[in-house]
# Entry
Amino acid sequence: VSTAASFPFDSVKSRLQVRDYPSIWACAKAVVREEGFRGFFRGVTIPLITISFVRTSSFSIYYNTKSSLHRQHVFDSPRLLHTALSGAAGGATSGIIISCGSAPFELVKVQRQLEYLIAVQKGLVKKAPQGGSGGRTFVPQSGFQAAANIYRNFGGIKGFYMGFPLHMARDTFGTALYFGFYDTIRSLVSRHSKTEPGRASPSLYGIPGPVVSFLSGSSAGILSWLIVYPVDLIKTKVQRDALAGTPRQYTGWQVFLHMIKERPPIPHAQGRGVLKTDTFLARFLRLYRGLGVSALRSLIS
# Structure
């Protein structure tokens, strides 16, 4: 349910990461215009099939790792620091292990989400003349067709691991941060919660327990994405260029330096001066393009 509900936001996020749209709304309108409403759900099939296994395995590894650390008295103190570290250790272990199995499915999902933009980049999409109708020759693939093409054109099984170091880094740090934040928030909540008469779960300042759980998970998701988001953006750009067969393919570090150093074009009317928007902060914030819709996706998911 969470995958189906949040997937359109994930699709918009992926497009914002690799193409400079004026706004989230402009990106959404472009998806409808160029790909139809189905474009928001392109690539959802494989995540729907695999998410139960991935999510269940992730939580199991996290829980068992954390329990083992407590049994061995590594982090057995009720202090918040130990709570955060045990949660982060369990999350990191889960992220490392799960990323090895989820990377191929993630790549296929990215390929499907960016299929139209990749076709445009490769010059495979023809648009109608101004004022005409139709004119596009783009035919979307199924998830299994996309997987077969990756296998056939990118070296077999190893093709599914394009951008894997970035994928593993994102999952390891992202899951560690998520569970570290989540356990810390839940620990703080439990200290101030109380069970009221007639209620099965404790409430926090009158807020029902299920709502507190929702807010705790949402806050942990948004905080973890805030830190790890640039890695996800760079991963998506590296995978997009590899899937498009770009002759010059950059490493993650090269993409990072390019985005930090690249200056926007200076309009002719402004002469040779420096644009007011051309600051280090403005260039650094490019790494967070699409963060808003990603935070909304995390809130829902």
Summary: Residues 209-243 form the longest helix (35 residues).
